Amino acid sequence: MHARIVLLPGDGIGPEIVAQAVRVLNAVADRFGHTFELTEQLIGGAAIDATGDPLPADSLAACKSADAILLGAVGGPKWDDPNASVRPEQGLLKIRKELGLFANLRPIKPLDALVDASPLKTHIVHGTDILFVRELTGGVYFGESGRRDGGKTAYQEMVYSEAEVERIVRLAAGLARGRDGRLTSVDKANVLEPSRLWRSVTSRVMKEEFPDVKLEHVLVDAMAMHLLVRPRDFDVVVTGNLFGDILTDEASMLPGSLGLLPSASLGVPRSEGGGPGLFEPIHGSAPDIAGTGKANPLATILCSAMLLRDGLGLPGEATAVERAVHDAVAAGVRTADIAAGGPSVTTVEATDAVLERI
């Protein structure tokens, strides 16, 4: 296979972890006889510094013509002025909107060898296997916003249409059908009107199109508690943009570190006229450890596996990468964030251990 992959290293530790994922992708290409054409583009704070735009036109054009996109991270203290008119995160929101990436998939599955790394008790965490499906291009992050009363009052609308809810629920229900057949929809229907629409549309779609999938509605505040008490009870969880953002960051602590969790942002499949998927670790830019060699590359390496499977249709290659990561961790390879005070390896050394096992 010949595939064009755009790299968006971004800010903070982004360039370091993307560089390690590139090593893994090159190893996969060599082993399985593929050609991956890798090109690097600007996004986030680095793009602001270079061009004044968090997503320059050249970056967007390259992404639109790619087969898949690998992103590191955006943001940092340098660009953290809340009153700034241009912010790194705007580049991320724009690329999601421009490419129609309406669904963010975030698997939460603690590695057996790292169950003890979780702040929760082992018997609560062990066996957890949740797939979050977060709606990514609607809701409060894309609603009309502004200031009034001379800047003393701020507002931001939460807006969802039936069509937006239908497409994310269909995708999530299809994934649930291929797993354990259970879908949990999270909303705030007791208070918010968009959530009432979300719940009614979800119920209708599931009844009419997915009667074989068991549906459960849970309020977002209750879900925040359930994740800490009974995470094993959930299979696929679908929710809106804001709730999904918060809940998945909370759930990331189940495996013990943000540095272990990948994500995929997907839209309409390429076979149906859609664009490329975007793959990124769920952690941030971690500017406090940038350049120290302490960054955990495993989430980004696992992103490369999702890229291979969901972006390029190469499940065997993806499984090889995932198995290599699991085997490395089982052999005791630990970066500082998961070492629990014990011996740790550097970013490059962790990748070396994975490469030895591919």
UniProtKB/TrEMBL annotation:
Q: Which UniProt keywords apply?
A: Amino-acid biosynthesis, Branched-chain amino acid biosynthesis, Cytoplasm, Leucine biosynthesis, Magnesium, Manganese, Metal-binding, NAD, Oxidoreductase
Question: SUPFAM superfamilies from the entry?
Answer: Isocitrate/Isopropylmalate dehydrogenase-like
- GO molecular function terms noted in the UniProt entry: 3-isopropylmalate dehydrogenase activity; magnesium ion binding; NAD binding
What chemistry does it catalyse, as a reaction equation?
Answer: (2R,3S)-3-isopropylmalate + NAD(+) = 4-methyl-2-oxopentanoate + CO2 + NADH
Compartments reported by the entry: Cytoplasm
Q: Name one GO biological process term.
A: L-leucine biosynthetic process
Which Pfam families does its entry note?
Answer: Iso_dh (PF00180)
Which amino acid positions bind Mg(2+), per UniProt? D221, D245, D249
Q: Which InterPro entries match?
A: IsoCit/isopropylmalate_DH_CS, IsoPropMal-DH-like_dom, Isopropylmalate_DH
Q: What does this protein do?
A: Catalyzes the oxidation of 3-carboxy-2-hydroxy-4-methylpentanoate (3-isopropylmalate) to 3-carboxy-4-methyl-2-oxopentanoate. The product decarboxylates to 4-methyl-2 oxopentanoate.
Subunit structure of this chain's protein: Homodimer.
* Record-given protein name: 3-isopropylmalate dehydrogenase
